[in-house]
């Protein structure tokens, strides 16, 4: 008897035992508690599964072509057959142990588990038919078993790597709509793609390792078994950052060892996003241009147009010395020697500020001098930056005599001169800059005839001069709203400005949108003496009206003697508790700043008491709406008041109008008249929306209500 012939009966008995164990576990897997050491066996499933896959396909090849590799004896093939099936059974067994740990979506686990069992069972039938010399049945079983191997492998990859793992390379070939930088959201278009590639396979809808999902904002905030992924009280201690910075050998390092790791740039992007309060609804271009996140993110959108330069990198120490509070120097995108220089603060600027850049002249390709007090003679200094491509001279006060110096800049592609009192002589100098791709001369006092001449002399340049009667309209910038403070006691002065002096600024104070039929015309600084939600827009003939600018002003009023919240706010958005509502610190659209109270599972309900009876005219609530972050206006507002008797009576019950689409985050004020004297108590309830409407990505879930101040007058 050969060695194979002695081992075959043993393997057959092992195979029978495995079938029995697998059958018991399959039937009773929801009722069996596994010891810890079997969890270790379960985690060997990804290691084991490669062996039976290879052996089963090799067995199939030799079954159909027995003379291949010279294997001609049935006992040799039988040994290989049984070894394949025993390993398949062990792999199935380990998979059942692993599934008992939990953390997998049933919709994906169920088909993978049963196709894996199908491989084991049909493979055994294949072996049985073959040993009984039922060749046709064996051939059919072999094809079915091997097909199930492919299906089970694909479904397993979906669990481990994501549902689109197999076809992801083909998806890259499809034309995808590109999002311009101006419309890109920090989370949706920069952070989420990183998470989808490196994190979602373990922390997504199909598999929730540690009960943590990272595919949507709502799950970020919910967190997993070890807490939220983000710590809004101390961003640097956020679990998301902690895990990615752990050593690779640490079992808690993310992504786990063996998975594709984050690149250095991806780590920097995640870190910059988290440290900037991890905003989910903020656009990329709303970040300061000098911020780390903006610099890194902008580079992603510039990838297709990135230029390579043959000049060397500037010395990092030199750049560090030149950076200060009024001048920022940074690479135009990561790993580029090209530099962008931006100046801030008129009072700190003089012509020597340009001379100080002499050591990096070769590397400067983008120079922003907007609003700096320049003279035409200073343009000679700009001509010494040989690789300058983009130059912003808006509102610098030059008249154009010095523009002849800029004709020496062979690489200059974009020149902005808006807001300067250009003379007609400037037109002749600009006409010589044939390399320009874009020229901005809005509000430069050049007559239409000169602008026509300029356009004709630069046929390959896009000349933007503001309104032209050619059917095209350009949108104005939003006006700037200025005031010393937004929470005041008696009154506060408000000033509004716009860089184009000829525009009219329309505004409202009642939360309505300023338009042609609903507005107050701004004629100069004015005083506010009561709380208001100020919205302003700029209009001018031949232009599209500007976007809306908004500021909420709150007049501090009566402070209650007793404050009692019926339900505590969310642990993540609890601010300073009830004190947050009367601390006269206005929150902004960063709802994680600590100035907001957030409520989702319970309504915001508060009872306010007064030691002495009060005459109350109205009550106002400072609220936040950010539908992209599941924050909505309250679904219902209820107000009760009580007099000396202590009996509450309903004063107001309103169902505010809900948005019908995701809008940009906005602050707003809800004000309600009370007009009561002898008031001893006020009770308010603001109910979160539940469920979120069907048009929203989070349809069916609970929404949030955010409150930061209550004003009683």
UniProtKB/TrEMBL annotation:
Residues 157-278 form the Cytochrome c domain. Coiled coil: none annotated. Keywords: Heme, Iron, Membrane, Metal-binding, Transmembrane, Transmembrane helix. It holds the Pfam family PSCyt1. SUPFAM superfamilies: Cytochrome c, RNI-like. It comes from the Bacteria. The keyword Transmembrane applies. The chain crosses the membrane at residues 7-27, 47-65, 77-100, 112-130, 137-157. This is Chitobiase/beta-hexosaminidase C-terminal domain-containing protein.
